[in-house]
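To: structure desk
From: M.T.
Subject: fold request, one chain
Message: Could you run this one when you get a chance? Sequence is below, nothing fancy, just the single chain.
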Amino acid sequence: MSHSSQKPSEKALLDQVATPTNLSSSEENEAVMGNARVVCRVCKRLYREPKILPCLHTFCADCIRQLEPFTASVNSKSLAVVRDSHSRDQPSVTVLCPQCDSEVDIPFSGVDGLTTDHLALDEVFLETLNSNKCVVCDLCTDGEAEKRCELCCVNLCEFCCQAHRRQKRTASHSVQSLQDLKAQGLISRPVLCSLHPGQELRLFCEPCDLPVCLECAATFHRDHRCSSTRDVIDHHGDRIRELVTGCLRPRLGRLEESLRRVELSQEALQARVETAAEEVRAFARGYASAVEAHCVSLLRRLEELRVQRRNQLHLQRAQLLQALADARGGVEFAERLLTCGSEAEILSVKGVTIRRLACLAESGYDPQPATVSPDNGSSICFMPQESAGELEGYPVVGVIHAKTIEISKCTIEGEDVQHGREGQSGEFILVCRNSAGEQMGRGGEPVLVSIIHKVKKDCRVETTVLDNGNGSYNISYTPKEPGVYSVWVCVKDQHVKGSPFVLNVKRKFRRHRGTFHCCSFCSSRGSKEARCGCAGKMPGGFQGCGHGHKDHPGKPHWSCCGSVVEASECLPHSVIAAISPRNHLRTVEL
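Reply: Done. Structure tokens follow.
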């Protein structure tokens, strides 16, 4: 029984457990579907030498070696370069965890330096048992395994199990039936040292913070404080439980609650968006229906206008034909009478002929060709931007206008068309109207405004015409010189009613330079030389006015011009000179 005399190493045991020879690829896929804890998320197969990354996610060692370095100071493209290195001078490598995308550091010794996930190994072996497939003996590889040594972690057939018990080194090992292990659903086995095969990790080195075996404690850690794992498990286990219960469990609760709120918000958002989308669709359907109804209404209005204008043209044509026939008949009769009739014949029918011709000339239908033209529909226009009110609760735009401008009905509004001030802007409004006197509801008419000085023909005033789009036009101007101007306002090259207008432009507003007072005597404290623009004077040699004396206005007035209105314009010096030939000095303001 020499084949069982040596114990397999930890590495060999890991390979034996992680690579069951009795499972095919299809069976592994079934295991993947059955228990995700035994499957590597990279290769999608049962764990083979599972290693734990610092983020506590487990992957096969070979899968970790194939990861591309995220940041590294070594010139390597894979972790295989540092997997066998044990030198702490070797730079570490950072990779991204395939599961959580966290940046994790691979130790200096490479992937082999990562902690082995023994729980994953137990899960793999338990999954193997639950697969109801034959488990081959790990020692002879011939018979079917029925037992398992808890210490050696090997599966044994009945023959190898007896030999295992007869050997002195393994006689005390606990051997359990595979069926019992399967019924328990949990495999508990010792963890062996990777440096000393067969040695269980029973001690814990405090300075190194590592579990060690007896031989490691006697050699590599002989100067360190090593304690039994049973003595330190409570302390370190309590620390783990404290982090879990004191920190992570409450955090898990908060995270779960936050996640629940976010999911509820997502559901509420989706429901609100769907409701709003349905509202939009309903609004679009209703709006489309309203627009379609408005379109039908506009087309009906156009048809009504067409019939109305057609009837008007028919009537106008009939009237013109009748007037034409009457006029032609009268002209033909008169010309035949004058050409072919004798004196007696002409004189005999003179009375009736003259009366008829006079009637045709005065009261007949005789429009001017310039004012009567066929209506070609140019007055009918569609204004797409103009509001048409609401239809079925929806605002709609687009209006049919059929008003024809009547030049004689157009009016000018505003006093600035007749009075202006030098250097000050003035403005008046042109209102275009139809034959009924109604304001046109649209703009676009050709408006021409010209303001020319009546004396200085080369003096023109620049004007600005602003189309308000509703039939009215704001016309603004700024005269630079005073005087009398002629204002021409034309629409379609025709003068509107009252055009041309006379515009009187006054000089700039003259502000008073004197004092607004009751009399020059009072304001000058009795000075005889104080003169006033009102031309009044007092007896006794006083040149200015006084209360109740000659030429006194009888009320407070300006000393420079004699105006009795406080908020008024100062009269020009020429007006003052006309009142009195003397030079009037303004009263000194005291």
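Reply (cont.): The chain has eleven helices and 26 strands. Let me know if you need anything else for the meeting.
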